[in-house]
Fold this protein.
Amino acid sequence: MKRALITGITGQDGSYLAEFLLSKNYKVFGLTRRTSTPNYERIKHIQDQIELIPGDLLDQQSLTSAISLSNPDEIYNLAAQSFVATSWSQPVLTGEFTALGTTRMLESMRQVKPDAKFYQASSSEMFGEVQETPQTEKTPFHPRSPYGVAKVYAHWITINYRESYDLFTVSGILFNHESPRRGLEFVTRKISHGVAKIHLGQQDSLILGNLDAKRDWGFSGDYVEAMWLMLQQSKPDDYVIATGENHSVQEFVEAAFKVVGITNWKKYVKTSKEFYRPAEVDFLIGDATKAKKALGWKPKVSFADLVKLMVEADIKLLQKNSQ
Ligand code: NAP
Ligand code: G4F
């Protein structure tokens, strides 16, 4: 039985990846940080099948212990301060978690389990102000937020450990991927949850920021398979994972309201400078040709289906919570 350690197992991707690895018969370990109340909402349905190990990206010793205890064949480093907007109000913490946290994980792996395979959660935010369209593994980076800058560091330190120590380390450059388990602060879930509330008469309006930004949005459940595929290859390499299609925030809004039969969405949507960013990433679209060829990966859930499944899941959730 293969063994995997997931940092960030309580997050969106961590929960889908844990499910996916269990379906492949892995023994799954997850790193969880101390909180005053448990935050296992996304993994409660599989909690009896996985083993949680306390630890924090800030604490080197806890990471070394977690790798020692789990003795993993594969390490998936998904933990990070992942919300771009927060990276301006907490830039140092973002650097500590998202950048140096990766070095700490790599260093612990090098000391304790150098033959493990390591996956780093790199991001299309690294492309920022895009230098070419669509973006590929070769597109130069121009990050536009402290988060994007931290991810560029993490990306390069992952490559550096591969080149310096001959470790099997890979980076998946994943474009935005969403699901009903997305945090409520991210725009897609903010919209699906807001539209569901408006539909149920629990909210009057939805306040958003820049409606013109365009993203290449896929489904998280599809993207965790790509992470796993990268670690099944004979040689470590980096891959872009994307749908190859992009949509504006406004298009997401329109599609979400359409799911509940509302066409005059402008009646409900307001914008506020509060949700604009000091530096915006206007346009992202990925080219996943390399992953398609080498990994045999392709996305399964379309944009329209993604919006529909998120809005319907939020309606169900709100109805359940109000019973
Ligand atoms: P998420 O839902 O925000 O989950 C982040 C996870 O990191 C949570 O489990 C969180 O734990 C954990 N974490 C944060 N700080 C930590 C610390 N100091 N020590 C230990 N754990 C810590 O993020 P996601 O959407 O699943 O994304 C997973 C990874 O992929 C992240 O690295 C993100 O930056 C990257 N990424 C995401 C996307 C996307 O579109 N989703 C695209 C590209 C890259 P708590 O539950 O305790 O907060
Ligand atoms: O949903 P977002 O907050 O995601 P963002 O910034 O693209 O970052 C996500 O994807 C990255 C991959 O490219 C990940 F690395 C990262 O961890 C995260 O998962 O914002 C998307 C867009 C932005 O352009 C933002 O300005 O939506 C725009 N937006 C408009 N109104 C809003 C809002 N974003 C949020 N969060 N809230 C709004 O009200």
